[in-house]
Amino acid sequence: MLDDVASSAVRVALKGLAQRQRVIADNIANVETPRFLAGRVQFEDALRTAVEDGTSPQEVTPEVARSLEPTRENGNNVNLDHETLTHMDTVLRYQTMLKALDSKYSLLRSVIRGGA
Amino acid sequence: MSGGPFRAIGIASTGVTVYRKWLDAVSDNISNLNNATTTAGEAFRERFVIAQAVDYGSGNGGVQVGGIELGSAEGRLVHEPDHPLADENGYVRYPDIDLGSQMSQLMMAQRGYQANLSVVDRAYDAYQAALQLGRNS
Amino acid sequence: MSIQPIGPVAGPLRITAPAGVEAASPGNAAEVFGNLLTQGVDTLQQTQANADALAVQAATGDLQDAHDYMAASTEAALATQMTVAIRDKAVAAFTEIMRLQG
């Protein structure tokens, strides 16, 4: 059900953003842990390429990498400001994607139910 | 809360726990800053909380207290002949804890504690929105 | 303060009689209705495609303004509801006519 490109892209984004949320929570929990390198979740580029090439976005899986930014004295490179702002952005985008999926379901529902 | 659909809240809560323990350690250090002992005894040893990533690299392990380390028991000798605990040369032993360093640690721990709590807040909103999926009309 | 008269509602789905047809005469009523329906379905497809394109942009993080997507998806929802309403009315009319003949 609902396997069009937009719905699939939205589902991939939801998956990626949920994982990004967990990774940011992990980064913030480890903001003072020695030798901890911040995690980064990437899925946007792969998703964009899949949509542009016309391949199925469903194949896109989010990838986690470690940040190579310079570290502080304790070998940690988590930047709390950056993580906090990215988290807000991620939550808002996650909510937008939920709305997108919801409106897809609503279209289907109004066709099934009719104008009554 | 090791897994499950609301994992981000669980991860942030590991952070809340670690920073609370750090706050406890710092307040312990500060309150014992002026504990004098006899030169024969041990000075209060500074508490260090060791933060350790859980399941590092997985991105959803969070953090834990890897252990508590204790500072030197030697402290510093202060010449206070009037002190009731002073030895025959007039010395007492004080912990060698720097208040300035404790205060900056207090700020770091507090900032970490609050940051993790606000992650819980935001993750809660996101999960609430997820639970509303499909309920629209 | 001047009070403006209430104007026509400008919805996402603008259904107007095809040019040159002012009032439907019994002879061409079917054609007029058919055109309305075709137009409606075309508009529906357009608004849905637009909402989909913006949803993909939001998914890849390329969406500039959140309100663009919200407006587009609401328009798609309204266009769908409008088309469904027209479909239901057409079916109801057909049923009514069949009932009169029977």
From TrEMBL, chain A:
Q: Which UniProt keywords apply?
A: Bacterial flagellum
The compartments listed are: Bacterial flagellum basal body
Pfam families the record matches: Flg_bb_rod
InterPro entries from the xrefs? Flag_bb_rod_N (IPR001444), Flagellar_basal_body_rod_CS (IPR019776), FlgB (IPR006300)
Predominant localisation class: other
Q: What does this protein do?
A: Structural component of flagellum, the bacterial motility apparatus. Part of the rod structure of flagellar basal body.
Q: What is this protein called?
A: Flagellar basal body rod protein FlgB
* Species of the source: Planomonospora alba
Automatic annotation (TrEMBL), chain C:
So where does this one cross the membrane?
none
Q: Does the keyword Cell division apply?
A: no
Pfam family membership, one: FliE
Q: Where in the cell is it found?
A: Bacterial flagellum basal body
Q: Tell me yes or no: is Cell inner membrane among this UniProt entry's keywords.
A: no
The alphabetical list of record keywords is: Bacterial flagellum
InterPro entries named among the record's database cross-references: FliE (IPR001624)
- Give the residues annotated as coiled coil: none
Look up the domain of life of the source: Bacteria
Predominant cellular place of this UniProt entry's protein: other
Family as reported in the entry's similarity comment:
Belongs to the FliE family.
NCBIfam families listed in its UniProt record? fliE (TIGR00205)
Name of this protein: Flagellar hook-basal body complex protein FliE
**From which source organism is this entry?**
Planomonospora alba
Q: Which gene encodes it?
A: fliE
